[in-house]
Design goal:
Length: 165
Amino acid sequence: MFVNVRAIITRQTPDGREILIQKRNKPFEGSSPYELPGGQVEEYESLYDALVREVKEETGLEVKHIKNQEARITTQDETSNVEAITPFCMYQTLRGPVDSLGAYFLCEAEGELLSDGDATQQVQWIKVEELKNLLEKQCIQFSWIDKSGVLYYLRSLEYGTSNGV
């Protein structure tokens, strides 16, 4: 089973809230749907460290805030080090090409945005309302994993449970 982290990076502009999306650039996979920044956690890597690393590699941005990061607890003894955190939401694949489990985190980031990153291209900001309309009209295709995360985020905005970032 693969363990992954995914970033829902948002920013507020005078025209409304925007979210960062990118196209997957792995030709051997056969398609290049949109996705959220993120990827596989390395052995014994903190989920937060993996998130910061993946966002930098794929987008060029530096993560400046992860919602609920202040609630993080780390315990350590002679033979272990364990981290307890509060992600925005979790996913588990119940069927599909890869057995995986992952966490989505609401983030703010800054810096110069890459147009093409590590296995990504067309890294771009899109207005949340525009994304919602494109999804409703089925005019945009997301990866099989991130479709659920994006829809969960949009629902949280509808119900007021995400508080923006």
